[in-house]
TrEMBL record:
It is an enzyme of class 3 (hydrolase). InterPro entries: GH, Glyco_hydro_1, Glyco_hydro_1_beta-glucosidase. Its EC number is 3.2.1.21. The keyword Glycosyltransferase does not apply. Belongs to the glycosyl hydrolase 1 family. This is Beta-glucosidase. Transmembrane segments: none annotated. Keywords: Carbohydrate metabolism, Cellulose degradation, Glycosidase, Hydrolase, Polysaccharide degradation.
C-alpha cells in the first residue's frame, strides 16, 4: 500500500467508532429476542461464506461493559451502535419487550457514565422475519411498522438519547438484499426491487417526525455512497456510469435532500410507488447527513444481453482491501465524493457525518498480542486526510466514524473479514486492541490539542 502524508489538523471534528447489533451482540435467543431476516439468511445452506451464524462472535449482549471501556480508552466523542428491532419488538408489532429495552437501557447508561455520547441507529438491516413474510420493504406498510417501532425506542430511551440515525444503508438492503440476493432477504428481483427504496425512505421520514416530536436534537439517515467513475471516455461507458450513479447514489440522496427523485423512467427503470405527501415526509429536514464510504466504483457498459446496463470493472492502479479488487483503496475518491455532494446539493445538504469508513485485511483468528495492522492505519490515515481536504474545500463535515470498533460478523462473509480496531477471538470473545486502536487514540488526542 502506498504511503500517505500525515493527517492535517482537524480542529472541531468529532470522532466516533461504530458497530451494528446483529454483527456484535450474539445471544440470539436471549431476553425474548425475535427472529430477523438475518437469522433466516445464516441458516440457508451456502449463504454465508464460512457457514457461521454470528454466534457467539463478540457477544456484546453480555460483554457490553468491555466495549464501553474500550471506547473510553479510545477517547471517542460518540459511539454509533444499532438497536435490534427484534429485541425491542420481537414480532414487529405490539408493545416493547422489557428485556430488550432493558439491555439498551444498560448500554446507554454505561456509555453516559463513561463520557461517551450514544448515537444509535434504529435500523441496521435486522427486519423482523414476520414482516418480511408479509412483503418486507416491498410493502408500504413496513414503513409505518418501522415508525411504530421507532416510537417505542424513543419513548424508552429519549430521556437520555438525543442523537439518532434512522436507517442504515438502504442501498444495500435494496440492491444487495432485494435486487441480486447477496444479502438478506436474498431476493433476486433486479429493477422490481425499487419499491424497497421508496418504502425505506418513507420509513426514514416517518421516523424523523416521530423522533422530532420526542425531543431529538440530532437526526439523520445514513446512506452508503460511492464515487462512480466511467471505465473510459466512450459514450457507452459514460452512460453506464451515469445510470449506476443514479441507482447507487442519487435515488437515495435526492428524495431526502431535494424532495424529488431523479428521472429514473428516462433510464428505463420502473416508476417509484409515490403517493401524495410521500416526498414531503421523506424530505422532512434532518440535522445531519450520514455518509458511509469505503471505495470508489468503476463502471463500464454491459454486454447487450445483460439484464442491467452496467458492469463493475477493475479500478486501475489501486491497491485493495481484504475484500479483493472490488474494494479498491483510493482515498482521493472520498474527497471527490464529498466535494461533489457539496456542489450538487448546496444549501439543501446539512452537515455531513462520515458515519462509516474502514477496511478489512487478513488477520489470524487467535492472537497472543496486538496485531501490527499497518495496512489499516494507512487506509484510515489516507481517508481521514481526504476528509480534511474536503473540509479545506468548503465541505462542512462535523464527525468521522471508524468502522469498526470490533472485529464482527461481516454479513454474508461471516467471520472471514476483520474490520476492527480491536481483534476479537470469535470462539472466546477475547478482545485485543490492534496497533490501529492506539494510532486512532493518538490521532484524536492530537486533534484536540
Amino acid at each position: 500500500m502506498p504511503d500517505h502524508p500525515p493527517v492535517p489538523p482537524l480542529r472541531g471534528l468529532r470522532w466516533s467508532a461504530a458497530t451494528a447489533a446483529f454483527q456484535v451482540e450474539g445471544a440470539r435467543t436471549a431476553g425474548g429476542r425475535g427472529r430477523s431476516i438475518w437469522d433466516d439468511f445464516v441458516e440457508t445452506p451456502g449463504a454465508v461464506r464460512d457457514g457461521s451464524t454470528a454466534e457467539p462472535g463478540p457477544d456484546s449482549y453480555h460483554r457490553y461493559r468491555e466495549d464501553v471501556d474500550l471506547l473510553a480508552r479510545l477517547g471517542v466523542d460518540r459511539y454509533r451502535f444499532s438497536i435490534s428491532w427484534v429485541r425491542v419488538q420481537p414480532t414487529g408489532s405490539g408493545e416493547a419487550n422489557p428485556d430488550g429495552i432493558g439491555y439498551y437501557d444498560r448500554v446507554v447508561d454505561e456509555l453516559l457514565a463513561a463520557g461517551v455520547t450514544p448515537f444509535p441507529t434504529l435500523y441496521h438491516w435486522d427486519l423482523p422475519s414476520i414482516i418480511e413474510e408479509r412483503g418486507g420493504w416491498l410493502d408500504r406498510d413496513t414503513a409505518y411498522r418501522f415508525a411504530d417501532y421507532s416510537a417505542l425506542v424513543a419513548d424508552a430511551l429519549g430521556d437520555r438519547v438525543t442523537h439518532w440515525y434512522t436507517i442504515n444503508e438502504p442501498v444495500s438492503t435494496s440492491l444487495q438484499g432485494y435486487a441480486i440476493g447477496e444479502l438478506a432477504p436474498a431476493r433476486q428481483l433486479l429493477f422490481a426491487s425499487l419499491p424497497t427504496v421508496h418504502h425505506q425512505l418513507l420509513g426514514h421520514g416517518l421516523a424523523t417526525r416521530v423522533l422530532r416530536g420526542r425531543g431529538a436534537q440530532t437526526i439523520g439517515i445514513v446512506n452508503n455512497h460511492t464515487d462512480v467513475r466511467a471505465a473510459s471516455p466512450s459514450a457507452d461507458d459514460q452512460t453506464a456510469a451515469h445510470v449506476y450513479d443514479v441507482l447507487h447514489n442519487r435515488i437515495f440522496a435526492e428524495p431526502v435532500l431535494l424532495g424529488s427523485y431523479p428521472d429514473i423512467e428516462a433510464l428505463g427503470m420502473p416508476p417509484m410507488p409515490v403517493e401524495p405527501g410521500d416526498l414531503e415526509i421523506i424530505s422532512t429536514p434532518t440535522d445531519v447527513y450520514g455518509l458511509n464510504f469505503y471505495n470508489p466504483t468503476t463502471i463500464g457498459a454491459a454486454p447487450s444481453d445483460s439484464p442491467v446496463p452496467f458492469v463493475l470493472v477493475l479500478t486501475p492502479d489501486a491497491a485493495h482491501t481484504g475484500f479483493g479488487v472490488e474494494w479498491p483503496i483510493v482515498p482521493s475518491a472520498l474527497t471527490d465524493l464529498l466535494v461533489d455532494f457539496h456542489e450538487r446539493y448546496g444549501e439543501s445538504l446539512p452537515p455531513i457525518i462520515v458515519a462509516e469508513n474502514g477496511a478489512s485485511f487478513p488477520e489470524p483468528d487467535a492472537v497472543d498480542g496486538a496485531i501490527q495492522d499497518d495496512d489499516r492505519i494507512a487506509y484510515l490515515r489516507g481517508h481521514i486526510a481526504a476528509v480534511g481536504e474536503a473540509r479545506d474545500r468548503g465541505v462542512r463535515i462535523d464527525e468521522y466514524t471508524v468502522w469498526s470498533l470490533l472485529d464482527n460478523f461481516e454479513w454474508a462473509e461471516g467471520f472471514t473479514q476483520r474490520f476492527g480496531l480491536v481483534h476479537v477471538d470469535h470462539e472466546t470473545g477475547r478482545r485485543t486492541p490492534k496497533a490501529s486502536f492506539d494510532w486512532y487514540r493518538t490521532l484524536i488526542e492530537e486533534a484536540r490539542s
